[in-house]
């Protein structure tokens, strides 16, 4: 069995993530190829696509959200993701156990909620029109005055197939976006579980294969970290005849699609900027193919904020943020370790282009590099 080095795994993942070179493709295809993009905040998928797709324009994603070919909804790890409409209806049923577990994981806050009574009421309210969760919780509290309003809202968010409604906001969704029933937005195919165990297993298998296409080669633990699902080792064992199997340098078994790209480890990787919460830094239990373990805490904070990162030679070398003051836009990079001059030059050039995308009306642009 072939052993893949961490650097070879790095290049394989970057190739699938369109981070070895920007690729010319449409928004829906790109989002599907990435197996969805975490969209905890509305702006971040725009940055993630800009860094991966040749010639990407803000209006490309804005249009896709409005024509309903992509949707923003709770998916993997019970977090907001941007996915294609087709992938939402295909994979939301497979992720239903993750969403159910997220609700039960709230402990005493949601204990005792009568979902059989609550969910039809919520469905009835949302069938009348989209609502943001502040308004929805208030209406639910009128019907269930004994329940905690936050618990009511979270139960509906996790147990009903819902999507967010785009607006004309700059990043297509306001901070407090309205939600609507998926069936109202997408029609008959609405992401509801079927209750058919054979079909449910097929949906999970397809989801795992899509994960490997976007992030492989990977272990069962990696797939579970990305999706939030449990028991995926058995699923991968069932798929084994269809898969290529490798080992990493620690002897762990890695699964992959036979024809997926696995470039040589000396393939060059350009300077790239990733947005907050980008799945690239969240999609593996062992993230050493992308960054040294000692820096993991500087990317994911104690309050579970996942900072925007930059890549040099394919690895996460630090975090970044932008500021806009008096018409001047500044991108500040905080490097984990001092960067070589070549990296600073390439990152500065790339950072200026990113600023032009994020702040097109800024009168002045600047990129600064700081040590952590």
What report would you give on this structure?
- It comes from Planobispora rosea.
- The protein is an alpha+beta fold.
- It has 15 helices and 13 strands.
- Among the domains are: 163 residues, no CATH class; 81 residues, GMP Synthetase, Chain A, domain 3, CATH 3.30.300.
- It has a five-stranded mixed sheet with strand order 9-10-11-12-13, covered by helices on one side. A three-stranded mixed sheet has the order 1-7-8. Strands 2-4-3 form a three-stranded antiparallel sheet.
- A hairpin with a 2-residue loop joins β10 and β11.
- The chain is globular and about 65 Å long.
- The model has no long low-confidence stretch (mean pLDDT 94).
Q: Strand order, main sheet: write it out.
A: 9-10-11-12-13
Number of β-strand runs = 13
Distance from N terminus to C terminus (CA atoms, Å) equals 41 Å
Q: Name the structural class.
A: alpha+beta
Shape call:
globular
Rg, rounded, reads 21 Å
What low-confidence regions span 5 or more consecutive residues with pLDDT below 50? none
What's the total helix number? 15
Q: Helical content, roughly? A: 25-40%
Main sheet characteristics:
5 strands, mixed
Run of helices and strands: EHHEHHEEHHHHHEEHHHHEEEHEEEHE
Kindly report the average pLDDT value.
94
Tell me the strand percentage band: 15-25%
């Amino acid at each position: 069995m072939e052993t893949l080095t961490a650097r070879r795994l790095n290049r394989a993942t970057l190739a699938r993530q369109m981070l070895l070179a920007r690729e010319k493709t449409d928004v829906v295809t790109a989002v599907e190829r990435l197996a969805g993009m975490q969209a905890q905040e509305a702006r971040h998928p725009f940055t993630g696509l800009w860094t991966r797709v040749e010639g990407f324009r803000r209006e490309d994603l804005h249009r896709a959200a409005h024509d309903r070919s992509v949707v923003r909804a709770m998916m993997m790890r019970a977090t907001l993701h941007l996915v294609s409409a087709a992938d939402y209806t295909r994979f939301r049923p497979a992720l239903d156990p993750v969403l159910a577990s997220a609700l039960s994981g709230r402990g005493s806050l949601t204990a005792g909620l009568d979902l059989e009574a609550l969910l039809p009421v919520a469905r009835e309210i949302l069938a009348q029109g989209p609502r943001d969760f502040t308004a929805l919780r208030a209406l639910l509290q009128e019907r269930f005055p004994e329940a905690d309003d936050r618990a009511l809202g979270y139960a509906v968010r996790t147990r009903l197939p819902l999507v967010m409604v785009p607006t004309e906001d700059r990043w297509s969704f306001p901070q407090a976006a309205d939600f609507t029933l998926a069936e109202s937005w997408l029609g008959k195919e609405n992401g509801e579980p079927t209750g058919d165990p054979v079909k449910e297993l097929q949906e999970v298998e397809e989801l795992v294969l899509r994960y490997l296409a976007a992030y492989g080669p990977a272990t069962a633990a990696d797939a579970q970290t990305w999706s939030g699902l449990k028991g995926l080792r058995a699923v991968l064992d069932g798929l084994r005849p269809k898969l290529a199997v490798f080992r990493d340098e620690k002897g762990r078994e890695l699964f992959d699609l036979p024809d997926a790209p696995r470039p040589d480890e000396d393939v060059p990787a350009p300077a790239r900027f990733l947005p907050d919460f980008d799945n690239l830094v969240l999609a593996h239990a062992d993230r050493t193919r992308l960054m040294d373990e000692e820096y993991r805490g500087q990317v994911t904070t104690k309050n579970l904020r996942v900072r925007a990162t930059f890549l040099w030679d394919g690895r996460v070398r630090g975090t970044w943020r932008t500021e806009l003051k008096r018409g001047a836009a500044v991108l500040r990079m905080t490097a984990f370790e001092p960067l070589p001059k070549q990296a600073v030059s390439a990152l500065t050039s790339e950072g200026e282009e990113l600023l032009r995308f994020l702040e097109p009306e800024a009168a002045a642009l600047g990129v600064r590099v700081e040590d952590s």
